């Protein structure tokens, strides 16, 4: 199994489809995504378990940890891609069994926050609306270059 490589940009274009607000905190082992339909009605959260964000001169890098959590507006939740997490254990490009245990433990901690209704699963930002005057950010040259020091 080769490490998945995703081309980060084929060409500049405008985002289409569902609306999303993404919260990525420094040092966090996950990001939280608020999904909205085309009319900006809140549809639920998506939790992406990942390495803490690494900032560099042209942007940020993360390593996806395969395991995700889908969360409905009523805070019912389900795990996604448990099989991907398991099949990558002890592959040299991914994680050890101990690291996979830490990823699963992070998921358990987050599901506790979901069930308790703790931020960000407390309803904040479910009515988010972007300022209509906001324009897409200009990306610096080489923004999608992989950091060599992984």
Automatic annotation (TrEMBL):
Keywords: Hydrolase. Residues 127-150 are annotated as: Disordered. Gene3D superfamilies: FomD-like. Residues 12-119 form the DUF402 domain. Transmembrane segments: none annotated. GO terms for molecular function: hydrolase activity. It comes from the Bacteria. It holds the Pfam family DUF402. The keyword Hydrolase applies. The keyword Transferase does not apply. This is Putative RNA-binding protein associated with RNAse of E/G family. It comes from Kribbella solani. The lineage of its organism: Bacteria, Bacillati, Actinomycetota, Actinomycetes, Propionibacteriales.
